[in-house]
Write a structure and sequence with these properties.
This protein has two helices and no strands. Helix 1 packs antiparallel against helix 2. The longest helix is centred in the middle third of the chain and has 74 residues. The chain is rod-shaped. The protein starts with a helix and ends in a 10-residue tail after the last helix.
Length: about 130
């Protein structure tokens, strides 16, 4: 359930990124054009501007990767915990079934032996 929810969230985020990608791309092109124009007027400014933008983009990608890794790890942990809980439940049910089956078998055997000893002797009926 948690894994399905995470997949749905990731798909929704990817859809939003695809929808916003053309606008963001257009804005970045304009930003770069303005930065290059200013860089042509002031020596050294362009290199610093480009380096700062590249560093910011690398940091954003790194944070996104880390976030995705954390989500995947959390989903794996939740799945493992769910499997462990299911295994424990199954083990408990199996033990209850084994214990109940053994107890019932002993009870039936005891009832049969009591029925044999407590009642009148049975005489076989033979028709002639």
């Amino acid at each position: 359930d948690a894994a399905a929810r995470l997949l749905q969230q990731q798909q929704q985020q990817q859809r939003q990124r695809r929808e916003n990608a053309p606008l963001a791309s257009w804005f970045r092109r304009i930003e770069r054009a303005v930065a290059l124009f200013i860089a042509s007027l002031v020596p050294g400014f362009g290199e610093r501007q480009i380096a700062a933008r590249d560093a910011a983009e690398a940091a954003r990608r790194r944070e996104e990767r880390e976030r995705q890794q954390q989500e995947e790890e959390r989903a794996r942990r939740e799945e493992a915990e769910r499997r462990d809980a299911e295994a424990a439940d199954e083990e408990g049910r199996r033990r209850e079934g084994d214990g109940a089956g053994q107890g019932q078998g002993l009870t039936r055997a005891a009832e049969q032996s009591e029925g044999d000893a407590g009642g009148p002797p049975q005489i076989p009926v033979v028709e002639v």
